[in-house]
Structure formats: C-alpha cells, structure tokens
Amino acid sequence: MQTIKVKDYNDKKGVDFKKRLVEYWKTLQKTNMQYLFIVLFIQIINLILILLIIQNGHWAQYVWGFIVHLLILTIVVSFLMFKWLRKQKCILFMTVFVTPAVLLSFIIIVLLVGFKPSSEFPNHWRYSDNNFSRMATVDKFRVSEIELKYPVTFKMEVDDLKEAVDDWMRENGFNANPEPIIAKTPPLKASGDDVDIIGYSFSFSYFDFKTLFGMVNDLHIRVIECSDVWGGVKLEAHSNIRLGLKDYGTNIKFISSLYKYIEERTTKYNRSKLLCEDRS
Fold this sequence. Notes:
The chain is an alpha+beta fold. The protein folds into 2 domains: about 30-115; about 130-270, 2-Layer Sandwich (TATA-Binding Protein), CATH 3.30.310. About 45% of the residues lie in helices and about 15% in strands. Strands 1, 2, 3, 4, 5, 6 and 7 form a 7-stranded antiparallel beta sheet that branches. Helix 2 packs antiparallel against helix 3. The protein is elongated.
C-alpha cells in the first residue's frame, strides 16, 4: 500500500482548489457574470453604511429595509454560487433589476451619510414644499393645525418641560442627549458666577422604511424660556427629511405626536394661551 505524505496531500489539495477556482472564473467569463463581484462588494458597503446611519436612530423602524438589503445580498451571492442560476433569463434579471438597485442604493446611502446635519437647532430655514415641518418662532411652516389644536407655550419650569420631552422620546424609542442652552452673560455679571441655563435642545435621527432605500428624518427639539410671556417656556420642534422632496407625512406626524403628548402630560394651569414671540 502506497503511503501519501501529508505535504504531498496538502500540495495536491491546493492544486485542486486553484484548478476549481480557475474553472469557476472561466465559467463566469462565459456568462459575463464576473462583474457580480463588484456588485457584491458594493452591496456589502451598503449594509455597513446603513448600520452607521441607524446606530443612533430608531433601529426597529428600518428592520424591513435592512431585510430587503440582506435579500439583495443573498441574491447576488446565489448567482455566484449556483450554476443553474446562470441562465439567460436570470442574467437578464440581474442586469435589469438587481444591479441598478444596488448602485442606486449606494449613491443614495452615501448622500444620506454625507448630509448629516449639525446638532444645533436650525434657524432661518429655507422653505421647500413637502420635505419638512417646523413649529418655531422663526420660520414656522406647515404647522397651522398644530398651533390651533395644541398649546406651544407653557407656564412651568424648564426642567419639568424637558423631563416631559425626555419621556416622549423614551416611549418612542428615540435617543438623544439634551444639550443645555446657556444665557448670554450680561456685561455686569461676574465671570466666576455659575452659568445660567435657560433651556435644552435635542437632536436625533429617525430611519424609516417609507421607500425601498429608506428615509432619514432629522428632528430638532428646543425647550427654552420665553422672555415676553411671564413665567413662560416655549417648545419648538423642527423635522425634515435628509434627502428628497417628499416626506410622506412623517415630519408633521412626529411634531403632532410630541405636542399631543405634552398636552396630555400638563394641566390647563400649565398651558398658556399666549404665543411666545421671543426670537431667541
């Protein structure tokens, strides 16, 4: 009986693997399918970028979108692995449907990552027809029914209103660390005194599955003292989609939900009928 050395066996095994790899690549060349490796690589990048976008957002609302992208990745891998999928009809399906979807997703997701806004509450927003809603002293837009239906100015402590906003975010699965708003130091105030916190701002993103490629809403909330209403605190909210011209009603839905929740958490003694015109 002839004994096969381990080294010879490993060498033979390596040759067989290389041979199979070469034959596999020649098969792909015959069907013009070698470009699928590029498509596969791009789709993997798509999934990584999606995870980067939603890591601080609301993961549960985009779970179906993530499943769709996983399904696309599975289709691409299947075409690379199974010979029976390399028929003319299957290749046409890949060329016409899957490949354009992957490339378009890559372009859109890169733009979504690149257009991430700052954490500051936006001021002097440029108007657009259907991509944002804003309930604020400056540049309010598409919120007339909210202003008529819910209170927007409150007679309560800033910290109490901030706590109510915190609860609304927690119940909806949002995550944002409130940033304090510091009053401008008067000229005669000693520099060693404690800072005067007059409000808080919240900024966070929400990834929703309204389209095949998903849709990112950037939300900004501000709780701040109102100087022209005695003992008043105003609640401002701004919501816009990061990319696109139509928000499918999501922006007004977020803002309405917030003001409805705050109204339910307060009493009529905490609500002011006066509108704060302070432009701070």
